[in-house]
Automatic annotation (TrEMBL):
Keywords: Oxidoreductase
Bilayer-spanning residue ranges: none
Catalytic center residues: E61
PANTHER family: ALDEHYDE DEHYDROGENASE, NADP-DEPENDENT GLYCERALDEHYDE-3-PHOSPHATE DEHYDROGENASE
Protein name, as recorded: NADP-dependent glyceraldehyde-3-phosphate dehydrogenase
MF terms (GO), sorted A to Z: glyceraldehyde-3-phosphate dehydrogenase (NADP+) (non-phosphorylating) activity; lactaldehyde dehydrogenase (NAD+) activity
Keyword Calcium: no
Length: 293
């Protein structure tokens, strides 16, 4: 990509690409005196950068535990389609993936079955075969995901599918009857694992969303727009989607996270503003230029 910029005529040195392990080049890049702004996408590394970067503007998108609240009056077919797509596209390796479904108990059985039917149709295999679920990025990531799954199994979660893994490839897993004492209820798997927590009151769902240290996105499924707006106002997230899965959205929309999900706001105008320093020059004329008093 950088080579294409050079071919397009960008002045030499205006854009550069530096590659290497974060442990080798990270501190050099983020603490170099010539750097006066940092935009970073990642997780815990972003928090570490923010502690070292000094007095320069930061723009960070650091992951999330995007909660989906499903009310009793929701269109369950619509909700199931969006939850399956939102939870398992890119094998769940998206900051805006659905990371936890908080569903009213009265419709939970029906919704879980509808989601499960869609999960059963997902294809699993290598990316060159255009499969829906492909290997996660590293073996350490697969090990982390497996740790969350095994913790949920040990504590009594209901497995809608048999857990299966081959190397970095993890088959999609829908976990029902997840409780707040399970790691998967709070930690971001960044893989094809979706927990379902059953709630009796919408306030339970809002509380679980807000109790998270993340606050990137959330979504609400209901036919009542007034309820949707009230819930959206109460959710401590940068964006709330109503009757749709979390998503980046158009590039001119502000895209930001609260709490450990980030600093600042992305989006064309927002990014330009973040990378702009305002300077003021005041000209003091030798004589008053307007009448005083």
């Amino acid at each position: 990509m950088v080579h294409c910029f050079h071919l397009a005529g960008f002045p030499k040195g205006l854009i550069s690409c530096v590659t290497g392990k974060g442990s080798e080049i990270g501190d050099f890049l983020t603490m170099h005196p010539g750097v006066n702004c940092i935009s970073f996408t990642g997780g815990d590394t972003g928090i570490a950068i923010s502690k070292k970067s000094g007095m320069i503007p930061l723009q960070m998108e650091l992951g999330g535990k995007d909660a989906c609240i499903i009310l009793e009056d929701a269109d369950l077919d619509l909700a199931a389609a969006n939850i399956a797509k939102g939870g398992f596209s890119y094998s769940g390796q998206r900051c805006t993936a659905v990371k936890v479904a908080l569903v009213m108990e009265s419709v939970a059985d029906t919704l879980v079955k509808k989601i499960n039917d869609k999960v059963a149709k997902l294809t699993v295999g290598p990316p060159e075969d255009d499969c829906d679920i492909t290997p996660v990025v590293t073996e350490s990531s697969a090990n982390f995901i497996e740790g969350l799954v095994m913790d949920a199994k040990k504590k009594g979660a209901t497995f809608c599918q048999e857990y299966k893994r081959e190397g970095n490839l993890i088959w999609p897993v829908l976990l029902d009857n997840v409780r707040p004492d399970m790691r998967i209820a709070w930690e971001e798997p960044f893989g094809p694992v979706l927990p379902v927590i059953r709630i009796n009151y919408v306030e339970e769902g809002i509380h679980h969303c807000n109790a998270s240290n993340f606050g990137l996105q959330g979504c609400v499924f209901t036919r009542d727009i007034s309820k949707a707006m009230l819930i959206s106002d109460a959710m401590e997230t940068g964006t709330v989607q109503i009757n749709s899965a979390p998503a980046r959205g158009p590039d001119h929309f502000p895209f930001q996270g609260l709490k450990d999900s980030g600093i600042g706001s992305q989006g064309i105008t927002n990014s330009i503003n973040m990378m702009t320093k305002v300077k003021t020059t005041v000209i003091n004329l030798p004589a008053p230029s307007y009448t005083m008093g």
